[in-house]
Amino acid sequence: MNLQGKEIVIGITGGIAAYKSAEIVSRLRRLGANVHVIMTRNATEFITPLTFQTLSANQVVTDTFQAPEYWQVEHVALAKLADLFLVAPATANILAKMACGIADDMLSTTLLATKAPIFAAPAMNTGMWTAEATQQNVAILKARGVHMIGPDSGRLACGDDGAGRMSEPADIVKEIVLFFDKAEDMKGMKVLVTAGATRERLDPVRFMTNDSSGKMGIAIAEAALRRGAEVTLVHGAVTKAIPGGIRTVPVESTQDLYDAMIREAPEQDVVIQAAAPADYRFRDRQNSKMKKTAEKEITLVLTENPDVAAAVGERKKPGQTLVGFAAETDDLEANAEKKLKKKHLDLIVANDVTKPGAGFNTETNIATLIWENGREEQPLQQKSELAEKILDKVMELRG
Question: By percentage, how much of the chain surpasses pLDDT 70?
């Protein structure tokens, strides 16, 4: 384990678990990281800034208006400097501020300004942790890509037994090391991801489509980018903004998607097809808007679209890894395994879209990862979390 040269900012909030953060700072320093500490006013009631100044060998920031160490506005300087931002302990209060974008002290202001990956190690009473408001805030933060570490269950400072105990320093540091190890594991690789729904035009103002939001595909593209890959996103209609750093190829129809994939896929090391292309299109597309007639019924004829995944599979090159998705309502695994073989896939992500939290246009997903000699259940989780699991499996299969 080596964090040599990594700049890590740790935010410490007002909870009894603040004493554990001293060990986190010490462990990170021993691994070579340069650690900067921001403490809230309440945190200083539990442990002194001098402790962290001694352990980190850096000035500890406790006030937005204290004299800065750098010739810059302090919260902007630390926000830009950070390779990773850790909040430990993360109280219910700071989680709520992060979820709502409140910036009323040095820590919350810096968190709002940073573009670095954010980790949070929650620590609070069981009742506070399980409260609906806290769980909603956690879900919001996870959907934005904040990494939650814990909390663990056990005896709490208040005397209760249950969830809410901050994870142990060794486990928190292990998660940080694992993150940086992953951050480079796809460096030099070309990854193509598809996302969103295709649209099949009937006329200039009407089209046939589906409920896909593109969130799963975009989450995978973001994760691959963080892990060092050169990412291309071929996308139809999506409801989520696509982050910078990703090359985009917009398409509308399934035929457009087919053409783009035939052109783009051969140059890729990994192709992950999370888009939801329409299987059929209108046989007769009108050049002008169809007008209402006296007829009470009209007949529209559909014709089959090209099978994009099959076409990519038929052209699979040596060393290339292909991943598909199977969104099903019946016979999930049987249909997924059939598609895995038929389309020459290395991995398929199968999900039953009728399950709560697993359908289209949600922030979460439930899936089964299936490959030639195995399967792995993935329970309800944020799509950003599932994206990492999919890429972990891709890298494992690539050896």
Answer: 95
What does the radius of gyration of the chain's CA atoms come to, in whole angstroms?
A: 24
Span 207-241, pLDDT tens digits: 999 999 999 999 999 999 989 999 999 999 999 98
For residue 344, report the phi and psi dihedrals to the nearest 5 degrees: 60, 40
Which CA distances in Å does 275 have to 96, 130, 192? 33, 35, 12
Strands 302-304 and 280-282, bridge-based pairing: antiparallel
- In terms of pTM, does the model score above 0.90? no
pLDDT at 64 over 60: no
Strand partners, 207: 201
Q: What is the DSSP string of 28-87?
A: HHHTT-EEEEEE-TTGGGTS-HHHHHHHHSSPPB--TTSPPSSSS-HHHHHHHH-SEEEE
Distance CA 64, CA 40 (A): 10
**CA-to-CA distance for 246 and 231, rounded, in angstroms?**
5
Degrees, nearest 5: CA angle 147-149-152: 155
The answer to whether the 7-182 and 190-398 domains have the same CATH topology is: yes
Task: Return the residue matching tokens 């939001």.
Answer: 213
**SS3 (DSSP) at 13:** coil
Identified catalytic residue from 50, 57, 133, 158: 158
Q: Which residue has the tokens 């014709």?
A: 303
Does 158 participate in catalysis according to the annotation?
yes
Amino acid at 158: C
pLDDT (tens digit per residue) in 255-274:
999 999 999 999 999 999 99
In CATH, which superfamily holds the domain spanning 190-398?
Answer: CoaB-like (3.40.50.10300)
CA nearest to 203, candidates 294, 302, 256, 282: 282
Architecture of domain 7-182: 3-Layer(aba) Sandwich (3.40)
User: Does the pLDDT at position 283 exceed 50?
Assistant: yes
Q: Which two tokens stand for residue 61?
A: 């920031």
Distance (Å, whole) CA 123 – CA 160: 13
> Taking the CA of residue 102 as centre, how many other CA atoms within 13 Å lie in the half-sphere pointing to its CB?
10
Q: Note if the bond before 89 is cis, omega within 30 degrees.
A: yes
Any idea which residue has 């750098």 for tokens? 70
